[in-house]
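Reviewers asked in the last cycle whether our approach scales beyond single polypeptides. To address this, we selected a multi-component target totalling 902 residues and predicted its structure end to end. The input consisted of the following lines:
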Amino acid sequence: MGFLYPGALVFFALIPALVLAYLAKERPARVTVSSVLAFRALRGFRRERFGGWPRLDWMFFAEVFILSLAVLAMAGPFIWKKTAPLAVVIDNSAAMQALTPAGKSRFEVAREKLDAALSAEDGGSEISVYVTAPQPRRVAPPFNTLTEARIALSRIKPTDAPNDQTTLENFLGNLASEARVAKVIFAGAKALAAPVPARIHPIEVGDAVANAAIGSFSLRREALGAEALHASLSIANFSPDTRTLELVVTGDGKQIAHAREAIGARETATLEFPAIPPARIYEAKLAPDDALALDNVAYATAGSVKNVSILFVSPTPADAAGLNSIPGVEVTARTPDAYSPGDLGTFDLAIFEFAAPKEIPGVNTMLVMPPPGDPVFGLTVTPTAKVQIAGWRTTDTLTDSVNFRLLSLRGGEYFGTHPWMSQVVGGDGGAIVLKGERGAHRFVATGFNPFPYLGRRNLPMSVLTLNAISYLAGLGASSNGYRTGQPWLVPAGVERVILPSGSAVAADPGTLFTAVSEQGVYELVGPGGAKTPRAVNLADLTESDLSSSAPLKVEAANSGSAAAPLMEKSSLGDYILAVIIALTALEALIVYRRRRIAEAAAP
Amino acid sequence: MFGLPDEFTPGFLARLEKLRIRTRQRYGGLGRGMHLSPKRGSSLEFNDFRHYSPGDDFRYIDWGLYGRSDKLYIKLFHEEEDLLTYIFVDASASMAYPAGDRKFESAILTALALAYVALASGDRVMLRVLGGSGGKVNPSFVNGRHRIVELARRLHNLKPGGQFDFATSLATELLAIRRAGKVFIVSDFLMLLNSVTRGLGMFTAASMDLTAVQILGGRELNGQGLDGDVEVVDSESGERLRVSIGEGERTQYRETMLRLTREIKSFCLKRGLHYALYTTDQNFQNFFVRAVSDLGLAH
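The resulting structure, written as structure tokens, was:
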């Protein structure tokens, strides 16, 4: 036995002092009486005392014992115990929902095999249970018994999110390297590539299963203001034979598109539907049914219908008129003199044209041709008579669908290198468009003024402006949509999110929303109950490939060493505390009973 | 009032003056008084006849008897004398405890009240103190009600203290007083019953008419002020006892005290003695007026 804090044993020295104080307190009072004649009859009741003075009944010793135990508990006593902590990892990714030929899902098979594996363990050591998707995590603090671990396993359900292969490999590697873990049991669909670390005991449930899947479902508007949308879907055939797949697209429950396509073995095809009628929610369904029903369905939405409120601060407020023409945008114009930072509280985003705020705004902000020498953002500004675009990021949300070759700009300014804003569009003399994030808010700076050119007069300018507003408002500009397991930023004005399962989760604008394990349509609820749908799909053909998945390459620091029992400090503090509580309760009970008896005996 | 304790109000004194000491025997006195004496004298109480002798006052010849017996007989009458009253006050150390109960002060009040009754009746009073310190009380008879002030002054300076053997001390006193009469013993009688009965028994053997007045403290009788673990010290012997006192023990203590008083009372009644118990938590005047009979007094 040892002590974590042996210094606390010093307090044992206090016990004799407390005993002496107790004895002094218990010393009987001396009273002179006329005669002790009548007191002699009481001698039978006299309590004998050790040394003639103090009363040393069992309660006194019990209290000294409790005090000693308290000092002992302060010292943190422990004993060394042999232990072999066990880590149980179950793959709960979307692929585990696939049905095996026996009719059970991979996840059910994995759980049964894990249960059998746990039965072979001797128990006595702590057991940690982990899941892998959307991110590897422990489901609860370590369990002390196999029964508790089995109960925890029985409560785990597979998610619609895929595994992150690299993260999972690193996680298993770290777990196998950890000194406190003697054995890792991993049950999943993916095999472990050789050499498998000695501490990892894999249970593979990933028998090859033929599967067809929808890889992506995206919508885009071909032209600004066009009502019809262009739908694009990729479908894959992960089977050894050519299969004819049928795809049905419905909009708000009505069938609006249909396609049949023969796809070769392990091939992927893209289906285009150039003009599908507007609908709130689109659903694509692949037939025939197969082992994994999850990836036979995909959802898409037409985009944001939420009104975005913008505070437009400019010496020429009339420029806001162009913005007002965009559907779903509400603009409040104000001159720089009338602006105060407190105004920002009621707006989703702010636009400063030819002006700059005196402090970093508390909302997402766009700076249009900011004046030179601004100390808040520290932009280096070089005015130019003719802005010439030289390059742009092709994958950026701001440049999505912008035809820069048709974008003509007149006077403007170039930006120099900025500490925290990066270049999106560049010109001969420097950056023309910058974007960056600061204090959980997004910022965009443009070296030209797009507002006079909005509308059909300059379509690329309009698309660029809409992209910028969508980016700043946190609305979906991603053509690829949202994927299960990938958190997204809560857009401005959203108060709660209704999950596909129907349960509602409170949301805080500007923060990441992480309850994204389900595939389906999430409803973003804003003020007044206005709902904005957001489609979240598995959209991961790697996960859908149930016939040939890449094995996990797990590397552990001690991959060669077998599991060895560990010596672990087992604290005795809890037991001592339990004894203290029990003794104190017992003493209180006895004192209470004695008092009741005395009260009953009193005349 | 006039050097008397506060309890001796004019009203109380007036009530005391209506009382007189009652004795079960006739005792000779030292002068004329209101009590019948065994001596023959000139009172109206008939005593005996004797043959007439020349020179006898023929006013006392019983002419009726002469007519029946044809012989001359002289009627003899009892003499009426004063009563010799002895008042013993216990001034041992035990009378000082418990301090708050004022036992000794109550004993002095009782002695003075008894003395005043005797003096107001024309009897002679001798005050004798058992133990004590702080002053000498002259053991001599006094008569006349005005002498009560003198007695009060003598007792005022007395302090309780010391220890004595009750029986031995009373035997010594008995030898000293020589003449029989009425005896009052005012004490707490917190001593062995054997000592009490031997002491009181000696007075009855000496044909004394005795009244025992037991003075106990109110708190003393109920065991108040004692709680928990207590070491009690005897005020006279210094004996120590360690006791734990709770409600149950306090009840038993009180029952023991009451049993001791009952045993003393029982002894007194069996021997034809008067017995009265005064606890200091009572009003003294009320006690004295109500306990007239127990004190051996009469209206």
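Residues 52 and 73 of chain B are 5 Å apart (CA to CA). We regard this as preliminary and will revisit it once experimental data from Aim 1 are available.
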